Amino acid sequence: MPEAKAASVHADQKHPAAGTNLLFLREEQMRLAQDLLFFAYRDFTGAADVKLEEIGLGRAHHRVLHFIGRNPGIMVSDLLAILRITKQSLARVLTALVEQGYVAQAPGRADRRQRLLTLTETGQELERRLFETQRERLVAAYREAGGAAVDGFRRVLRSIMDQNARDYLDAHDTEREKRARAV
Predict the structure, then answer these.
(1) Number of domains in the chain
(2) Helix count (H) and strand count (E) of the chain?
(3) Mean pLDDT for the stretch of residues 21-31
């Protein structure tokens, strides 16, 4: 009966405060979270998928465009580490993006065997269009949820990620802070 009492305490709230009870750890809640993640991913990527399909590209191409756009001059080895895909898979995706004029490759400055990747102007335009499509959905969701929920959402997602992903995000937070101070 303690579960029923805990649930009734928060019956008047749409979303109880974190840590007020542990009912959110029950299997049914975990399955609901899994459903939410699957449906959110489907709908978040869906609008971009339509634009990508029009030009013969898919989600793998989108991920590569995103991370090259966020990391101009990224080495292929670093992109492989972020995406956790095989060299063969990345080679197929990169070949298409280079051939269609979205990505440029240059040799490394210190080691000419390295390949540094950047988006071409056309690639930047495509990445921007894809971002704007998904941005609209995020802005609407963030506005509806409010700042505290957005912060909680970020904390949950970071907790799902492994340490390498969190380190990547932290390093980019530091870079953004440096650029903001320079302005």
Answers:
(1) 1
(2) 8, 3
(3) 82
- pLDDT digit string, tens, across residues 62-113: 999 999 999 999 999 999 999 999 999 999 999 999 999 999 999 878 877 7
Residue 33: CATH number of its domain: 1.10.10.10
What gap in Å lies between CA 138 and CA 30, rounded to an integer? 23
CA 76 to chain centre: 19
- Per the domain annotation, does 168 fall within a domain? no
Distance, CA of 103 to CA of 46 (rounded, Å): 23
Token code pair at residue 71: 């990391």
Question: Where are any strands of DSSP class E within 99-150?
Answer: 103-107, 115-119
Question: Among candidates 140, 169, 145, 146, which has minimal Cα distance to 157?
Answer: 169
To 10 degrees, the CA torsion angle through 73, 76, 79, 83?
Answer: 160
Q: Are 162 and 140 in contact (CB under 8 A)?
A: no
Question: Residue 142 and residue 144: Cα distance in Å, rounded?
Answer: 5
Stretch (H or E) spanning 100:
none
Residue 128 lies in a domain: yes
Q: Considering only CA atoms, which of 124, 115, 125, 131 is closest in space to residue 74?
A: 115
